[in-house]
Structure formats: C-alpha cells, structure tokens
Amino acid sequence: MARLFPTLLDCLEKGELSVSILALLVPKLTEANYEVIMKGIEGRSKREAELFLSTVSFDGEIRAEAPKVEVKILCPQTVYEKLERAKDILAPEGQTWADVLDHALEAFLDKHDPLRKAERAQKRAEAAAHEKAEVQAEVAENTALMPAEEVPFDVEPVIPGDTIRSRYIPQDIRHAVYLRDGGRCTYVSPEGHRCLAKRFLEFDHRLPLAFGGEHCLENLRLLCRTHNSFYAGKMMGADFIRSKVLEARGDAQT
Ligand SMILES: [Zn+2]
User: Fold this and answer.
1) This prediction's pTM
2) 8, 158, 225, 252: least surrounded by Cβ within 10 Å?
3) Helix 77-90 vs helix 97-112: crossing angle, to nearest 10
4) Distance from residue 196's CA to the centre of ligand 1 (Å)
5) Nearest to residue 155, comparing CAs of 175, 184, 179, 133?
6) Spatial contact of 46 and 22, defined as CB atoms under 8 Å apart
7) Cα of 117 to ligand 1 centre, how many Å?
8) CB 53, CB 41: distance < 8 Å
9) Half-sphere exposure of residue 74: CA atoms within 13 angstroms, side-chain side
10) How much distance in Å is there from the Cα of 225 to the middle of ligand 1?
11) 215 Cα–ligand 1 center, Å
C-alpha cells in the first residue's frame, strides 16, 4: 500500500485528484483495487466518487449493490430523540438509521411531495376512467337487449360548468402541470439549458389571468420563484413590478 502513495501524490500535484477525494480514497485503497478505483473515479465529482467507492471491495470487485453516501448531521437532542423513537417504532423492521430515515422520508414525501400527489391522482383518474368505460360497456350491452322505452338513464356523467372565474387553479390541473413539467422549473436559457430548480416552484400563467389567460394545462407552467419574477418582469414591465413590490412593502403610501 505504501508503494502507492508516491503515485497518489503525483496525481494530486498534477491536479488529477483533489484533496477531498484523496481523503475518501485512502481508507479504501489496496493494491488489489487500486486500478479499478483510479479508473472509476476519473473525472468524477466528490459525491460521485463516494458513490462509486461504496461499491468497490478491497479485492477490486465491483459489488452489485446500491451505491451509498455517508451523511453526517449534527442535530439537537430533541431531533435525536425523535430518531430513536422512530427506530423503536420500526423495530424489528428498521435495523439501521438508513432504514429509519427511509421510512420517515417515504411517509413525508407521500404526504407532501406535489409530484407524488400528482402521480397518485393520475392513477386514480386512470382507474376511474377504466371503471367508467367498463360500466358504459355493460350498460350498452344491457340496453341493446332492452326495448327502447325501457332504457333507464343516460350514463354520461354531469360535468359541472366552468362558470366561476377564480384565482384558484383546480387540483387536477395542478397535478397535470406538475407531471408534465416533472416537478421542475421550465425556464430554458437562450443557450438551451433548462433550469434545475425543484424548490420554490410556482404556477405561472403564460397569458396572465388579468389578460384573459385561463387555468388550463396549455396556459400553465412551473417556474421557480426567480424565473417567475423574470417572466413577470418581462410581461408587465420592470416598473410595474417595482411598484407592486413597493406597494406590498407599504412604501407606496409614504
Ligand atoms: Zn428556474
């Protein structure tokens, strides 16, 4: 193993290896896995290198298991007690902290992730459509056998009229927009790079409500807060936005 250090230091000097990646490597490296590891981490970020390293054995075998990263968190005692409590509840299912976190995060995401909610709503809608089609087929089959005057009712559901114009975007439309946009900002830069933001997403009306825009899939898109104000600035003019911001702050009256 000591024989490898001069080579590693050489890589460090040439800038082929960063100090942070070297720190990850040292406890893992053996003469047997040296080549596999050096090849595998070439050009990778620290996180990617860590994921790769977690799959390599001391013999240089690449194990067919899910790559892992180490997460260290310093948390208040109250949070730690909650973790312990969750582990108690999960026992014997949850043996490790990773199991506890996985369960807790699954429950959290099921409840709060807009993308998951949209996926569930889509599945429900598909199941409902399937059921409706089955009922219709059955009714059609039965009515075909009935004399015309005995056909009982119209199976078409009543669709409530879209009469009230409000700022509220209906849930099914929100879900459809979330799914289409993949829960990510849709802004694309002039160079063709799409914004990576998945946080602070807002529903943007391409044609604003004030100009007659509607709550429909075609007129809505997800934008992060930054790009939403960017488009708002374009649409309304920067002066308009500035006056709105001042108004909201209460500066307008002074
Ligand atoms: Zn964005």
Assistant:
1) 0.55
2) 158
3) 90
4) 7
5) 133
6) no
7) 22
8) yes
9) 0
10) 7
11) 21
Rounded CA gap, 173 and 161, in Å?
16
Task: Return the domain boundaries, the chain.
Answer: 2-53, 77-112, 114-148, 171-249
User: Quick one: tokens of 215?
Assistant: 């709550």
Which amino acid belongs to residue 152?
Answer: P
* Per-residue CA distances from 150 to 118, 143, 146, 153 (Å): 41, 8, 6, 9
Cα(142)–Cα(154) distance, integer angstroms:
13
Per residue in 108-147, pLDDT (tens digit) is 999 999 999 999 998 988 888 888 888 888 778 776 766 6
Place of tokens 């790769």: 52
Q: How many CB atoms lie within 10 A of CB 126?
A: 10
Structure tokens belonging to residue 155: 């199976």
Proportion of the chain in helix, strand, coil states, percent, rounded to 5: 55, 5, 40
